[in-house]
Write a structure and sequence with these properties.
alpha+beta; OB fold (Dihydrolipoamide Acetyltransferase, E2P); 2 domains; five-stranded mixed β-barrel; three-stranded antiparallel β-sheet; binds zinc ion
Length: 261
């Protein structure tokens, strides 16, 4: 039976049978893959740590007929601070879910792997929602889905004003002429400019950027609606995040209107 190594991060870990887990791994060399970690739900299992969400390590995997099996894991990092508060857990889970829905199995992407690992490390010190937003925008840039921010997504013309019209269907901001034919919503120009900074700014100095509560809320909402439209499915952890942020239980439903607020 063939055996291979994967330098990988656990981006999903779900129960399987009585004592196993199915892991979704994102690996540097092989991209996304799935493997069963056997017996890891037993209290005495030595492989338990390697089956935890966000564990980064070296996995030794047996190639199986239908499912591969993890035979050994040497963890390198477990990011314990991700579990210390809800905001950090939410941001890391939001990143993992986005990575899972936006990628196909066994399509390596080293740039995306490095971005993910870097952002998990940055979550120790930085504003977790700033990291999540920068991660989502940069992931889309790498995968070629980045929205147009500050020029018209339809005609390439200039967009102006304190509020800009953003359409998920068109894939970005729209000028006055083009918005007549598209549905979308109004976004403050400051939020659009800040999203551009989240992509361009040195990622290790992101903590120098400052945003207000309304800008954070607006950007996270726009990103979630855009991502859900792009990948055609709800992002569960992003929706839960809205609940934890303002504590009201309100869920942003991203209502789309035609040119009105
Ligand atoms: Zn236009």
């Amino acid at each position: 039976m063939a055996v291979y190594h994967a330098d990988a991060l656990v981006i999903r870990s779900r129960q399987f049978g009585e004592s196993d887990r199915v892991l979704t791994l994102f690996s540097r060399e092989l991209g996304k893959l799935q493997a069963v970690a056997k017996g890891v739900r037993k209290p005495k299992s030595r492989q338990r740590a390697g089956a935890q969400l966000f564990t980064y390590g070296d996995f030794l995997i047996h190639r199986g007929k239908s499912l591969d099996t993890v035979s050994q894991c040497s963890p390198k990092e477990s990011f314990p601070y991700l579990w210390r508060d809800l905001d950090r857990s939410f941001s890391a889970t939001g990143m993992a879910e986005l990575l899972d829905v936006s990628t196909f199995s066994e399509q390596p992407n080293k740039e995306l792997f490095t971005l993910t690992l870097t952002c998990l490390f940055l979550l120790e010190q930085f504003d977790p929602f700033l990291i999540l937003s920068a991660y989502a925008l940069r992931l889309m840039e790498i995968l070629g889905y980045r929205p147009l921010l500050g020029e018209c997504a339809e005609c390439g013309g200039n967009v102006k004003g304190e509020r800009l019209f953003f359409s998920v269907e068109a894939g970005g901001t729209l000028c006055g002429n083009c918005r007549e034919s598209c549905s979308g919503r109004w976004v403050r120009a400051g939020s659009i400019a800040f999203m551009r900074q989240l992509i361009r700014h040195d990622i290790k100095k992101l903590d120098r950027l400052r945003w207000s509560a309304w800008m954070q809320e607006e950007i996270l909402e726009i990103l979630r609606i855009y991502l859900e439209h792009k990948f055609e499915r709800p992002l569960k952890s992003w929706r839960m995040g809205s609940l934890t942020r303002d504590g009201s239980g309100r869920n942003f439903d991203g209502k789309e209107g035609k040119g009105n607020e």
